[in-house]
Specification:
Layout lengths: L16 E5 L2 H4 L12 H6 L17 H15 L3 E5 L2 H4 L9 H16 L3 E7 L5 H5 L7 H17 L5 E6 L1 H10 L14 H19 L5 E8 L2 E3 L5 H14 L5 H5 L18 H5 L5 E6 L3 E4 L10 E3 L15 H15 L6 E5 L17 H19 L4 E7 L18 E3 L6 E3 L1 H14 L1
Parallel strand pairs: 1-2, 1-11, 2-3, 3-4, 4-5, 5-7, 6-8, 7-10, 10-11
Antiparallel strand pairs: 8-9, 12-13
Helix pairs in contact: 3-5, 7-9, 8-9, 13-14, 14-15
Bound molecules: ligand GBH.
The site of ligand GBH has 15 residues, from helix 8.
InterPro entries: GH (IPR017853), GH_1_N_CS (IPR033132), Glyco_hydro_1 (IPR001360), Glyco_hydro_1_beta-glucosidase (IPR017736)
Catalytic activity: Hydrolysis of terminal, non-reducing beta-D-glucosyl residues with release of beta-D-glucose
Protein name: Beta-glucosidase
Protein backbone atom coordinates (compact mmCIF):
# COMPACT_ATOMS: atom_id res chain seq x y z
CA UNK A 1 0.00 0.00 0.00
CA UNK A 2 1.41 3.33 -1.07
CA UNK A 3 -0.29 6.37 0.30
CA UNK A 4 0.82 9.83 1.22
CA UNK A 5 -0.68 12.62 3.20
CA UNK A 6 -3.83 14.64 3.21
CA UNK A 7 -4.73 16.23 -0.09
CA UNK A 8 -1.81 14.61 -1.89
CA UNK A 9 -2.83 11.04 -2.55
CA UNK A 10 -0.33 9.53 -4.91
CA UNK A 11 -1.85 6.13 -4.38
CA UNK A 12 -5.11 4.67 -3.15
CA UNK A 13 -4.96 1.17 -1.67
CA UNK A 14 -3.87 -1.56 -4.05
CA UNK A 15 -6.84 -2.96 -5.94
CA UNK A 16 -8.93 0.20 -5.49
CA UNK A 17 -11.47 0.23 -8.33
CA UNK A 18 -12.11 3.29 -10.46
CA UNK A 19 -15.24 3.39 -12.52
CA UNK A 20 -18.17 5.21 -14.06
CA UNK A 21 -21.88 4.65 -13.45
CA UNK A 22 -25.10 4.87 -15.46
CA UNK A 23 -28.70 3.61 -15.17
CA UNK A 24 -30.90 1.86 -17.72
CA UNK A 25 -33.79 4.30 -18.15
CA UNK A 26 -31.44 7.25 -18.27
CA UNK A 27 -29.37 5.98 -21.23
CA UNK A 28 -30.90 3.03 -23.06
CA UNK A 29 -33.89 4.32 -25.04
CA UNK A 30 -35.42 1.56 -27.24
CA UNK A 31 -38.35 1.39 -24.87
CA UNK A 32 -40.54 -0.63 -27.23
CA UNK A 33 -37.92 -2.98 -28.57
CA UNK A 34 -37.27 -6.67 -28.17
CA UNK A 35 -40.23 -7.24 -25.89
CA UNK A 36 -39.56 -4.62 -23.20
CA UNK A 37 -42.65 -3.78 -21.14
CA UNK A 38 -43.60 -0.34 -19.79
CA UNK A 39 -42.13 0.92 -16.54
CA UNK A 40 -43.40 3.52 -14.09
CA UNK A 41 -40.91 5.99 -15.62
CA UNK A 42 -42.39 5.53 -19.12
CA UNK A 43 -45.82 6.27 -17.70
CA UNK A 44 -44.58 9.20 -15.62
CA UNK A 45 -42.54 10.80 -18.40
CA UNK A 46 -45.44 10.47 -20.84
CA UNK A 47 -47.83 12.20 -18.46
CA UNK A 48 -47.78 15.90 -19.39
CA UNK A 49 -46.44 18.18 -16.69
CA UNK A 50 -44.32 15.67 -14.77
CA UNK A 51 -40.96 15.95 -16.57
CA UNK A 52 -39.46 19.29 -17.56
CA UNK A 53 -40.05 20.28 -21.20
CA UNK A 54 -41.99 17.05 -21.80
CA UNK A 55 -38.80 15.02 -22.10
CA UNK A 56 -38.86 11.23 -21.79
CA UNK A 57 -36.53 8.23 -22.07
CA UNK A 58 -37.87 6.88 -25.39
CA UNK A 59 -34.55 7.45 -27.14
CA UNK A 60 -32.28 8.79 -24.37
CA UNK A 61 -28.65 8.13 -25.42
CA UNK A 62 -29.74 5.19 -27.59
CA UNK A 63 -27.28 3.10 -25.61
CA UNK A 64 -29.37 0.00 -26.39
CA UNK A 65 -28.01 0.23 -29.95
CA UNK A 66 -24.82 2.19 -29.40
CA UNK A 67 -23.39 0.11 -26.55
CA UNK A 68 -20.31 -1.00 -28.53
CA UNK A 69 -19.31 2.64 -29.00
CA UNK A 70 -19.95 3.29 -25.31
CA UNK A 71 -17.79 0.31 -24.33
CA UNK A 72 -14.98 1.82 -26.40
CA UNK A 73 -15.38 5.09 -24.50
CA UNK A 74 -15.03 3.16 -21.24
CA UNK A 75 -11.99 1.30 -22.50
CA UNK A 76 -10.45 4.64 -23.45
CA UNK A 77 -10.92 5.85 -19.89
CA UNK A 78 -9.01 2.89 -18.53
CA UNK A 79 -11.61 2.21 -15.84
CA UNK A 80 -11.54 -0.94 -13.73
CA UNK A 81 -15.29 -1.33 -13.43
CA UNK A 82 -18.58 -0.16 -14.97
CA UNK A 83 -21.75 0.20 -12.92
CA UNK A 84 -24.90 -0.13 -15.02
CA UNK A 85 -28.46 -1.14 -14.22
CA UNK A 86 -30.60 -3.93 -15.58
CA UNK A 87 -34.10 -2.85 -16.65
CA UNK A 88 -36.59 -5.11 -14.92
CA UNK A 89 -39.21 -4.47 -17.65
CA UNK A 90 -36.81 -5.84 -20.28
CA UNK A 91 -36.32 -9.05 -18.32
CA UNK A 92 -39.87 -9.52 -17.06
CA UNK A 93 -42.18 -7.24 -19.06
CA UNK A 94 -45.11 -7.88 -16.72
CA UNK A 95 -42.99 -7.70 -13.57
CA UNK A 96 -43.72 -11.35 -12.78
CA UNK A 97 -44.03 -14.61 -14.65
CA UNK A 98 -42.85 -14.78 -18.26
CA UNK A 99 -39.16 -14.09 -18.88
CA UNK A 100 -38.14 -12.16 -21.98
CA UNK A 101 -34.96 -13.86 -23.19
CA UNK A 102 -34.13 -10.99 -25.55
CA UNK A 103 -33.90 -8.63 -22.59
CA UNK A 104 -31.37 -10.89 -20.89
CA UNK A 105 -29.49 -11.25 -24.20
CA UNK A 106 -28.83 -7.51 -24.22
CA UNK A 107 -27.21 -7.52 -20.78
CA UNK A 108 -25.26 -10.63 -21.65
CA UNK A 109 -23.79 -8.86 -24.70
CA UNK A 110 -22.93 -5.89 -22.51
CA UNK A 111 -21.34 -7.98 -19.74
CA UNK A 112 -19.32 -10.06 -22.19
CA UNK A 113 -18.20 -6.87 -23.95
CA UNK A 114 -17.00 -5.48 -20.61
CA UNK A 115 -15.12 -8.65 -19.73
CA UNK A 116 -13.45 -8.70 -23.16
CA UNK A 117 -12.11 -5.23 -22.38
CA UNK A 118 -10.97 -6.14 -18.89
CA UNK A 119 -13.69 -4.05 -17.21
CA UNK A 120 -15.42 -5.57 -14.21
CA UNK A 121 -19.25 -5.46 -14.43
CA UNK A 122 -21.18 -4.05 -11.45
CA UNK A 123 -24.90 -4.60 -12.03
CA UNK A 124 -27.67 -2.74 -10.24
CA UNK A 125 -30.91 -4.70 -10.39
CA UNK A 126 -33.29 -1.84 -9.68
CA UNK A 127 -32.63 1.77 -10.59
CA UNK A 128 -36.26 2.97 -10.33
CA UNK A 129 -37.83 1.45 -13.46
CA UNK A 130 -40.56 -0.67 -11.87
CA UNK A 131 -42.66 -2.66 -14.36
CA UNK A 132 -45.94 -0.73 -14.67
CA UNK A 133 -48.16 -3.80 -14.00
CA UNK A 134 -46.56 -4.07 -10.55
CA UNK A 135 -47.29 -0.42 -9.86
CA UNK A 136 -50.88 -1.01 -10.92
CA UNK A 137 -51.01 -3.70 -8.22
CA UNK A 138 -49.77 -1.25 -5.55
CA UNK A 139 -46.09 -0.91 -6.40
CA UNK A 140 -43.77 -0.65 -3.41
CA UNK A 141 -46.76 0.04 -1.15
CA UNK A 142 -47.51 -3.66 -1.65
CA UNK A 143 -45.51 -6.33 0.18
CA UNK A 144 -45.88 -8.62 -2.80
CA UNK A 145 -43.52 -6.43 -4.85
CA UNK A 146 -40.65 -7.54 -2.57
CA UNK A 147 -41.22 -11.16 -3.56
CA UNK A 148 -41.53 -10.26 -7.23
CA UNK A 149 -38.18 -8.41 -6.97
CA UNK A 150 -36.43 -11.46 -5.53
CA UNK A 151 -37.86 -13.62 -8.30
CA UNK A 152 -36.55 -11.17 -10.91
CA UNK A 153 -33.15 -11.06 -9.18
CA UNK A 154 -32.85 -14.81 -9.38
CA UNK A 155 -33.71 -14.77 -13.09
CA UNK A 156 -30.93 -12.30 -13.85
CA UNK A 157 -28.41 -14.13 -11.66
CA UNK A 158 -29.32 -17.42 -13.31
CA UNK A 159 -28.06 -15.98 -16.60
CA UNK A 160 -25.25 -13.68 -15.46
CA UNK A 161 -24.26 -14.87 -11.98
CA UNK A 162 -21.01 -16.32 -13.21
CA UNK A 163 -19.87 -13.13 -14.97
CA UNK A 164 -21.05 -10.12 -12.98
CA UNK A 165 -18.51 -9.20 -10.32
CA UNK A 166 -20.64 -6.97 -8.10
CA UNK A 167 -24.39 -7.09 -7.62
CA UNK A 168 -26.26 -4.09 -6.28
CA UNK A 169 -29.83 -4.93 -5.33
CA UNK A 170 -31.42 -1.47 -5.10
CA UNK A 171 -30.30 2.00 -6.06
CA UNK A 172 -31.23 4.64 -3.48
CA UNK A 173 -34.45 3.21 -2.03
CA UNK A 174 -34.77 6.51 -0.14
CA UNK A 175 -35.35 8.37 -3.41
CA UNK A 176 -38.08 5.94 -4.46
CA UNK A 177 -39.78 6.38 -1.09
CA UNK A 178 -39.32 10.13 -0.74
CA UNK A 179 -39.44 11.53 -4.27
CA UNK A 180 -41.60 8.78 -5.80
CA UNK A 181 -44.17 8.01 -3.10
CA UNK A 182 -43.95 10.78 -0.47
CA UNK A 183 -43.37 14.05 -2.37
CA UNK A 184 -44.68 12.82 -5.74
CA UNK A 185 -42.05 14.42 -7.97
CA UNK A 186 -40.60 11.19 -9.41
CA UNK A 187 -42.45 8.11 -10.72
CA UNK A 188 -44.97 6.93 -9.72
CA UNK A 189 -45.86 10.48 -8.66
CA UNK A 190 -47.68 9.72 -5.41
CA UNK A 191 -47.69 12.34 -2.65
CA UNK A 192 -48.37 10.17 0.40
CA UNK A 193 -45.95 12.05 2.69
CA UNK A 194 -45.26 9.94 5.81
CA UNK A 195 -47.81 7.34 4.68
CA UNK A 196 -45.15 6.31 2.13
CA UNK A 197 -43.09 4.62 4.89
CA UNK A 198 -44.16 1.07 3.96
CA UNK A 199 -42.33 1.54 0.63
CA UNK A 200 -39.09 1.68 2.63
CA UNK A 201 -39.81 -1.60 4.34
CA UNK A 202 -40.99 -3.39 1.22
CA UNK A 203 -37.92 -2.30 -0.76
CA UNK A 204 -35.64 -3.39 2.08
CA UNK A 205 -37.44 -6.72 2.32
CA UNK A 206 -36.99 -7.10 -1.45
CA UNK A 207 -33.29 -6.36 -0.95
CA UNK A 208 -32.92 -9.05 1.73
CA UNK A 209 -34.83 -11.65 -0.26
CA UNK A 210 -32.76 -10.78 -3.35
CA UNK A 211 -29.46 -11.15 -1.45
CA UNK A 212 -30.52 -14.65 -0.61
CA UNK A 213 -31.67 -15.42 -4.16
CA UNK A 214 -28.44 -14.07 -5.65
CA UNK A 215 -26.21 -16.06 -3.32
CA UNK A 216 -28.06 -19.22 -4.25
CA UNK A 217 -27.20 -18.59 -7.91
CA UNK A 218 -23.48 -18.03 -7.93
CA UNK A 219 -23.35 -14.31 -7.17
CA UNK A 220 -19.99 -13.49 -5.65
CA UNK A 221 -20.22 -10.00 -4.22
CA UNK A 222 -23.56 -8.52 -3.17
CA UNK A 223 -24.50 -5.13 -1.74
CA UNK A 224 -26.99 -2.27 -1.76
CA UNK A 225 -26.53 1.34 -2.86
CA UNK A 226 -27.87 4.08 -0.62
CA UNK A 227 -28.04 7.80 -1.10
CA UNK A 228 -26.64 9.79 1.82
CA UNK A 229 -27.12 13.46 2.47
CA UNK A 230 -25.45 14.77 5.64
CA UNK A 231 -28.06 16.65 7.68
CA UNK A 232 -27.08 20.16 8.79
CA UNK A 233 -29.24 22.02 11.30
CA UNK A 234 -30.01 25.52 9.94
CA UNK A 235 -28.91 26.98 13.26
CA UNK A 236 -26.67 24.48 15.08
CA UNK A 237 -27.45 26.20 18.39
CA UNK A 238 -31.22 25.90 17.94
CA UNK A 239 -32.76 22.78 19.51
CA UNK A 240 -35.74 22.69 17.12
CA UNK A 241 -33.40 22.84 14.10
CA UNK A 242 -31.27 20.09 15.63
CA UNK A 243 -34.37 17.94 16.05
CA UNK A 244 -35.34 18.61 12.43
CA UNK A 245 -31.88 17.55 11.25
CA UNK A 246 -32.12 14.44 13.42
CA UNK A 247 -35.49 13.54 11.91
CA UNK A 248 -34.18 14.03 8.37
CA UNK A 249 -31.15 11.88 9.17
CA UNK A 250 -33.34 9.11 10.58
CA UNK A 251 -35.82 9.13 7.68
CA UNK A 252 -33.48 9.76 4.76
CA UNK A 253 -30.21 8.11 5.81
CA UNK A 254 -30.44 5.73 8.78
CA UNK A 255 -33.80 4.25 7.71
CA UNK A 256 -32.08 2.46 4.84
CA UNK A 257 -28.87 1.46 6.62
CA UNK A 258 -29.77 0.47 10.19
CA UNK A 259 -32.05 -2.43 9.14
CA UNK A 260 -29.46 -3.75 6.67
CA UNK A 261 -26.42 -3.54 8.96
CA UNK A 262 -28.00 -3.85 12.41
CA UNK A 263 -31.37 -5.46 11.86
CA UNK A 264 -33.24 -2.58 13.53
CA UNK A 265 -35.23 0.46 12.46
CA UNK A 266 -34.34 3.90 13.84
CA UNK A 267 -36.41 4.74 16.95
CA UNK A 268 -38.16 7.58 15.19
CA UNK A 269 -39.72 5.34 12.52
CA UNK A 270 -40.07 1.99 14.29
CA UNK A 271 -43.55 2.76 15.78
CA UNK A 272 -44.92 3.83 12.38
CA UNK A 273 -43.80 0.58 10.80
CA UNK A 274 -45.23 -1.64 13.53
CA UNK A 275 -48.12 -2.95 11.45
CA UNK A 276 -46.00 -3.41 8.35
CA UNK A 277 -42.97 -5.36 9.63
CA UNK A 278 -43.52 -9.10 10.15
CA UNK A 279 -41.61 -11.29 12.59
CA UNK A 280 -38.79 -12.59 10.44
CA UNK A 281 -38.44 -9.56 8.16
CA UNK A 282 -35.54 -7.86 9.91
CA UNK A 283 -33.57 -11.10 9.92
CA UNK A 284 -34.09 -11.31 6.14
CA UNK A 285 -33.18 -7.65 5.61
CA UNK A 286 -29.99 -7.91 7.67
CA UNK A 287 -28.59 -10.82 5.68
CA UNK A 288 -24.81 -10.21 5.50
CA UNK A 289 -23.69 -8.09 2.55
CA UNK A 290 -20.21 -7.78 1.08
CA UNK A 291 -20.20 -4.03 0.58
CA UNK A 292 -22.20 -0.86 1.07
CA UNK A 293 -22.65 1.35 -1.98
CA UNK A 294 -22.56 5.04 -1.08
CA UNK A 295 -23.90 7.77 -3.35
CA UNK A 296 -23.02 11.31 -2.34
CA UNK A 297 -23.89 14.62 -3.98
CA UNK A 298 -24.56 17.26 -1.33
CA UNK A 299 -25.54 17.94 2.29
CA UNK A 300 -29.04 19.14 3.25
CA UNK A 301 -29.82 22.01 5.64
CA UNK A 302 -32.85 21.54 7.87
CA UNK A 303 -35.00 23.85 9.92
CA UNK A 304 -37.92 23.19 12.23
CA UNK A 305 -41.07 22.60 10.16
CA UNK A 306 -44.06 24.94 10.20
CA UNK A 307 -46.86 24.13 12.66
CA UNK A 308 -48.91 21.17 11.34
CA UNK A 309 -46.50 20.66 8.42
CA UNK A 310 -46.66 17.20 6.83
CA UNK A 311 -43.01 16.39 7.65
CA UNK A 312 -40.83 16.70 10.78
CA UNK A 313 -38.37 18.99 8.98
CA UNK A 314 -38.18 21.75 6.43
CA UNK A 315 -35.41 21.81 3.82
CA UNK A 316 -33.72 25.22 3.58
CA UNK A 317 -31.10 26.61 1.25
CA UNK A 318 -27.38 26.22 1.92
CA UNK A 319 -25.51 29.45 1.33
CA UNK A 320 -21.85 30.34 1.14
CA UNK A 321 -20.70 27.49 -1.09
CA UNK A 322 -20.19 27.36 -4.86
CA UNK A 323 -22.97 25.47 -6.63
CA UNK A 324 -23.32 23.05 -9.58
CA UNK A 325 -25.50 23.67 -12.61
CA UNK A 326 -28.47 22.36 -10.65
CA UNK A 327 -27.76 24.77 -7.81
CA UNK A 328 -26.49 22.01 -5.53
CA UNK A 329 -23.86 23.25 -3.05
CA UNK A 330 -20.37 21.87 -3.63
CA UNK A 331 -19.11 20.64 -0.24
CA UNK A 332 -16.42 17.98 -0.53
CA UNK A 333 -15.70 18.19 3.21
CA UNK A 334 -19.21 16.88 3.90
CA UNK A 335 -18.33 13.80 1.82
CA UNK A 336 -15.39 13.00 4.09
CA UNK A 337 -17.52 13.65 7.18
CA UNK A 338 -20.18 11.30 5.82
CA UNK A 339 -17.68 8.47 5.32
CA UNK A 340 -16.13 8.95 8.76
CA UNK A 341 -19.64 9.20 10.22
CA UNK A 342 -20.66 5.84 8.73
CA UNK A 343 -17.57 4.27 10.26
CA UNK A 344 -18.40 5.84 13.62
CA UNK A 345 -22.06 4.90 13.60
CA UNK A 346 -21.73 1.32 12.39
CA UNK A 347 -18.24 0.39 13.59
CA UNK A 348 -17.42 -3.23 12.97
CA UNK A 349 -20.68 -4.07 11.21
CA UNK A 350 -19.86 -1.62 8.43
CA UNK A 351 -18.74 -3.63 5.38
CA UNK A 352 -16.26 -2.24 2.83
CA UNK A 353 -17.64 0.82 1.03
CA UNK A 354 -17.78 1.51 -2.68
CA UNK A 355 -18.63 5.04 -3.75
CA UNK A 356 -21.17 4.01 -6.37
CA UNK A 357 -22.03 7.58 -7.46
CA UNK A 358 -20.53 11.04 -7.13
CA UNK A 359 -20.55 13.78 -9.71
CA UNK A 360 -22.07 17.04 -10.85
CA UNK A 361 -24.03 18.66 -13.66
CA UNK A 362 -23.16 21.79 -15.58
CA UNK A 363 -24.68 23.19 -18.78
CA UNK A 364 -21.62 22.00 -20.75
CA UNK A 365 -21.59 23.18 -24.34
CA UNK A 366 -19.44 22.18 -27.27
CA UNK A 367 -17.12 25.06 -28.21
CA UNK A 368 -16.58 25.90 -31.90
CA UNK A 369 -13.36 23.85 -31.96
CA UNK A 370 -15.33 20.77 -30.85
CA UNK A 371 -14.12 20.75 -27.27
CA UNK A 372 -16.08 20.84 -24.02
CA UNK A 373 -14.12 22.72 -21.40
CA UNK A 374 -15.70 21.55 -18.14
CA UNK A 375 -13.09 22.83 -15.72
CA UNK A 376 -15.71 23.08 -12.98
CA UNK A 377 -16.36 19.33 -13.20
CA UNK A 378 -12.64 18.60 -13.01
CA UNK A 379 -12.39 20.72 -9.87
CA UNK A 380 -15.44 19.04 -8.38
CA UNK A 381 -14.14 15.53 -9.01
CA UNK A 382 -10.64 16.34 -7.87
CA UNK A 383 -11.88 17.74 -4.55
CA UNK A 384 -14.26 14.84 -3.93
CA UNK A 385 -11.70 12.17 -4.81
CA UNK A 386 -9.30 13.86 -2.40
CA UNK A 387 -11.98 13.77 0.31
CA UNK A 388 -12.32 10.02 -0.25
CA UNK A 389 -8.55 9.61 -0.01
CA UNK A 390 -8.54 11.55 3.27
CA UNK A 391 -11.31 9.32 4.67
CA UNK A 392 -9.28 6.25 3.71
CA UNK A 393 -6.31 7.74 5.56
CA UNK A 394 -8.61 8.12 8.56
CA UNK A 395 -9.37 4.41 8.50
CA UNK A 396 -12.54 4.16 6.43
CA UNK A 397 -12.43 1.06 4.23
CA UNK A 398 -13.34 2.43 0.78
CA UNK A 399 -12.56 0.07 -2.09
CA UNK A 400 -13.76 1.92 -5.17
CA UNK A 401 -15.15 5.10 -6.70
CA UNK A 402 -17.59 5.39 -9.61
CA UNK A 403 -18.24 8.80 -11.02
CA UNK A 404 -21.73 9.74 -12.16
CA UNK A 405 -21.83 9.58 -15.08
CA UNK A 406 -20.12 8.13 -18.15
CA UNK A 407 -22.19 10.40 -20.39
CA UNK A 408 -24.89 13.05 -20.29
CA UNK A 409 -28.28 11.41 -19.91
CA UNK A 410 -31.96 11.70 -18.93
CA UNK A 411 -31.87 13.41 -15.55
CA UNK A 412 -35.29 12.16 -14.38
CA UNK A 413 -37.79 14.97 -13.68
CA UNK A 414 -35.24 17.49 -14.99
CA UNK A 415 -35.12 15.89 -18.44
CA UNK A 416 -32.08 16.39 -20.67
CA UNK A 417 -31.11 19.85 -19.38
CA UNK A 418 -28.57 18.91 -16.67
CA UNK A 419 -25.40 17.31 -18.03
CA UNK A 420 -23.61 14.95 -15.63
CA UNK A 421 -21.32 13.16 -18.11
CA UNK A 422 -17.60 12.88 -18.74
CA UNK A 423 -18.84 12.55 -22.31
CA UNK A 424 -21.13 15.11 -23.95
CA UNK A 425 -24.17 13.77 -25.82
CA UNK A 426 -25.83 15.73 -28.62
CA UNK A 427 -29.47 14.67 -28.33
CA UNK A 428 -30.19 15.55 -31.98
CA UNK A 429 -27.42 13.47 -33.53
CA UNK A 430 -26.66 11.23 -30.51
CA UNK A 431 -23.05 11.99 -31.15
CA UNK A 432 -20.69 11.45 -28.18
CA UNK A 433 -17.92 13.97 -27.51
CA UNK A 434 -15.50 13.38 -24.63
CA UNK A 435 -15.24 16.48 -22.43
CA UNK A 436 -11.99 17.73 -20.95
CA UNK A 437 -12.95 15.91 -17.74
CA UNK A 438 -12.85 12.59 -19.66
CA UNK A 439 -9.13 12.99 -20.38
CA UNK A 440 -8.57 14.35 -16.89
CA UNK A 441 -10.27 11.35 -15.21
CA UNK A 442 -8.32 8.94 -17.43
CA UNK A 443 -5.02 10.56 -16.43
CA UNK A 444 -5.97 11.00 -12.79
CA UNK A 445 -6.90 7.40 -12.17
CA UNK A 446 -3.84 6.21 -14.07
CA UNK A 447 -1.57 8.32 -11.86
CA UNK A 448 -3.39 7.31 -8.66
CA UNK A 449 -2.88 3.67 -9.55
CA UNK A 450 0.84 3.82 -10.19
C1 LIG B 1 -28.80 10.02 -8.12
O1 LIG B 1 -29.76 10.50 -7.22
C2 LIG B 1 -29.40 8.97 -9.01
O2 LIG B 1 -29.05 7.67 -8.59
C3 LIG B 1 -29.05 9.14 -10.47
O3 LIG B 1 -29.89 8.34 -11.24
C4 LIG B 1 -29.13 10.60 -10.83
O4 LIG B 1 -28.98 10.82 -12.20
C5 LIG B 1 -28.06 11.32 -10.06
O5 LIG B 1 -28.23 11.12 -8.69
C6 LIG B 1 -28.00 12.82 -10.32
O6 LIG B 1 -29.14 13.44 -9.83
O7 LIG B 1 -36.71 17.03 -7.48
O8 LIG B 1 -35.58 19.08 -6.96
O9 LIG B 1 -36.68 17.82 -5.23
C7 LIG B 1 -29.31 11.51 -6.33
C8 LIG B 1 -30.36 11.95 -5.35
C9 LIG B 1 -32.51 12.77 -5.05
C10 LIG B 1 -30.99 14.10 -6.23
C11 LIG B 1 -33.66 13.51 -5.69
C12 LIG B 1 -32.13 14.89 -6.85
C13 LIG B 1 -34.46 15.54 -6.57
C14 LIG B 1 -34.44 16.99 -6.17
N1 LIG B 1 -31.40 12.75 -5.94
N2 LIG B 1 -33.28 14.87 -5.97
S1 LIG B 1 -35.98 17.75 -6.48
Amino acid sequence: EIRVGRGDHVGFPAGFQWGVATAAYQIEGAVDEDGRGPSTWDTFAHTPGWVKDGHNGDVACDHYHRWPEDLELMAGLGIDSYRFSVAWPRVQPAGSGAVNAKGLDFYERLVDGLLERGISPAATLYHWDLPQPLEDAGGWMSRDTAYRFAEYASIVAERLGDRVDKWITLNEPVVVMAYGYAFGVYAPGRALMLDALPTAHHQLLGHGLAVNALRGRGARTVGITNHYSPAWPADPANAADQAAAGAFDALMNALFTDPVLRGTYPDLVAPDLAGVVKDEDLAVISAPIDFLGVNYYQPTRLAAPPQDGPLPFEITEIEGHPVTGMGWPIVPAAFGDLLRGLRERYGDVLPPIYITENGCSFPDEIAPGGTVDDTARIEFLDAHITAVGDAIDDGVDVRGYYTWSLMDNFEWAEGYGPRFGLVHVDYETLRRTPKRSYAWYRDRIRSLRS
